[in-house]
Amino acid sequence: MFARLMGLNVISPGKLQQLMQKQPVSVLDVNSRQSWLTARVPGARPLDPMGYDESDLPTDRDSTLVFYCSNFLCRKAPNAARRAKDMGYRNVYVMSAGISGWVGASLPTESGEKRDT
């Protein structure tokens, strides 16, 4: 809702899952650390919505970035996405349904600390 009002591209949980199967996508979770540990989109990276800079994002400005927060009423993801657009990123989306929409769509989640292998 807020994302559309801000002129941002919106993507549904199902469309995001399809996109992730076709191409590399940087999925950025701007929820609290506790929320990220509880449930997140597989492969999502935690991101401080107000404290990030270009070093936290891919160097390629044509990379696909998808931001999400808790639900469609949350404004953190649209604000973080707007910031990325202002930095010159061209393929920026907001999954406005948030993690609650992802879980509600019965899509797979990750939880706990991420382990690099």
Structural description of this entry:
The chain has 117 residues and is α/β, with parallel strands linked by helices. It has a single domain (2-104), classed as Rhodanese-like domain (Oxidized Rhodanese, domain 1, 3-Layer(aba) Sandwich). It is 32% helix and 15% strand. It has 5 helices and 5 strands. It has a 5-stranded parallel sheet, with helices on one face. Helix 3 links the parallel strand 2 (26-29) and strand 3 (45-46). The radius of gyration is 13 Å and the shape is globular. The mean pLDDT is 92.
Layout of helices and strands:
Elements: H1 2-5, E1 9-10, H2 13-22, E2 26-29, H3 33-38, E3 45-46, E4 64-68, H4 76-86, E5 91-94, H5 98-104
Give a quick set of tags describing it.
globular; Oxidized Rhodanese, domain 1; 117 residues; single chain; alpha/beta; five-stranded parallel sheet; 5 strands
Low-confidence stretches: none
* Rg over CA atoms: 13 Å
Q: Largest sheet, order of strands side by side?
A: 1-5-4-2-3
Strand content: 5-15%
What fold name goes in the CATH topology slot?
Oxidized Rhodanese, domain 1
Assign a percent range to the helix content. 25-40%
Number of strands: 5
What do the pLDDT scores average to? 92
**Termini separation (Å)?**
38 Å
Q: State the CATH architecture.
A: 3-Layer(aba) Sandwich
